[in-house]
Design goal:
This protein is mainly beta. 9% of the residues lie in helices and 55% in strands. The chain has one helix at residues 2-23, and strands spanning 33-47, 63-72, 77-91, 103-121, 132-150, 161-162, 165-180, 185-196, 204-205, 207-210, 216-218, 224-239.
């Protein structure tokens, strides 16, 4: 929960500082805002409660689709509202216990607000700005996961907690690169990570250990998502910020 609060505070501090700069006229018509519509496609991975080795959990069958609305300002700051849909698959065929050899499919819908910072790189050509930029982002949002768990004919384990549908806060973060073709289109690549406050992306939560007195302590590790995507961005227009 502390990670979520910290992420929310970062976003609120960023938006508050941006509004303060606009109020003081530090962001004016010479540094107009720009609005974009973006689409991201690529493989996405979920590191869940599988006993499968890490490299075997990575699959190109898992992917993500993200639609975003972005606003950037002349001071290299910006924000993005992103709606993402991801699907994941996995299995526990490496498990030593026969009744742990399950498989699952899961779909995740996420809505998040991200604060972004851009760094323009490369040389300028006469009056044209450099077309290259890298950016970093962090945000806060909420997700809904819908998992289908196949136990392979084994009965549900009494010391496991099963929750096919769950809602949870999430912290998206990452970095990317984009190239501006100066004809309203931008192309780029992005690496993202998502830290959900949930251990039910795969539909269940296993016990970490069963003590001698019979007390059950469940896993304290949440599932983690992340991936790589190609981004397509279109410039919707400019919004000139007037001074008062």
């Amino acid at each position: 929960m502390r990670r979520l609060l910290l992420s929310v505070l970062i976003v609120l501090f960023f938006l508050g500082g941006l509004q303060a700069q606009r109020g003081r006229g530090l962001v004016d018509k010479n540094d107009e805002s720009q609005s974009y519509l973006s689409l991201s496609l690529g493989p996405e991975y979920c590191l869940s409660d599988e006993q499968t080795p890490l490299l075997h959990q990575l699959s190109f069958n898992d992917n993500d689709f993200t639609l975003g609305y972005r606003t950037t300002y002349g001071n290299n700051l910006g924000y993005k509202l992103a709606l993402s849909y991801s699907n994941f698959t996995g299995n526990d065929n490496w498990a030593k216990e026969i009744d742990r050899r399950y498989s699952y499919t899961s779909s995740v819908l996420q809505l998040a607000l991200q604060a972004e910072y851009f760094i323009k790189i490369g040389r300028r050509y006469y009056y044209k700005p450099t077309p290259n930029a890298i950016y970093f982002f962090v945000g806060a949002g909420v997700l809904r996961s819908d998992a289908s768990l196949n136990l392979g004919g084994a009965p549900p384990r009494s010391n496991y907690i099963y929750k096919p549908i769950s809602y949870a806060p999430v912290i998206p973060f990452g970095f990317g690169y984009q190239y501006n073709f100066n004809n309203n289109f931008l192309l780029g690549a992005e690496f993202n990570g998502r830290f959900p406050f949930s251990d039910y992306i795969d539909g269940f939560k296993p016990p970490l250990v069963i003590l001698k007195n019979g007390v059950k302590t469940v896993s304290k590790s949440n599932d983690v998502m992340g991936g790589f995507s190609i981004t397509f961005t279109y410039l919707l227009g400019y919004n000139y910020l007037r001074r008062y």
